[in-house]
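Let us work through a complete example step by step.
Step 1: write down the sequence.
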Amino acid sequence: MAYTFENLSFADFEDLARDLLGQELGVRFEGFGAGPDGGIDGRHAVAEKTMVLQAKHYAGSPFAALKSVMAKSRSTIDALKPARYLLATSRSLTPGNKVTLAREIGPALLTQSDIFGPTDLNGLLRKFGVPTDVLERTVAKIEERISEISEATDPASSPSLSADAIKEVENFDDNALRNLFAPLINGMR
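Step 2: predict the structure and record it as tokens.
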């Protein structure tokens, strides 16, 4: 099963990328709060050597959009001077796309393998995540338990209004409405 990551928010995609790549590389990436991040969605620093992770959530976007944003990021990447730069993106990539992105990113990208597209991220999910057969068995058990509970319980009857309640609703006027909200309005004064 391959995930497209389209249902993730930008923050969720950043968290996922940080967790998966940190696990793969055996490091802990620092995460930062919402807002401008200066091109850093994850950072691992040891002494003077800094590894920077940037996550770009562009699932469903044209490659040109990702290429453009990476071209604009080049000066920021160069200013950070990371020992190693990693890019994770939800945008599907071809080998040619990775070559193009590597040119845009510049020398901080040590290898095109440091660009992780959705296929790479799905591979890491399979490597570190829940195996598909375990997930399928778990879902089947949950569905079975829901079925058991449904069979063991009686459905509640639908509520109904009595004839008196219907008449009361029909007689509700502006005066009744004012009286209903008067204590609330008077309490605010």
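Step 3: interpret the result. Residues 21 and 124 are 8 Å apart (CA to CA).
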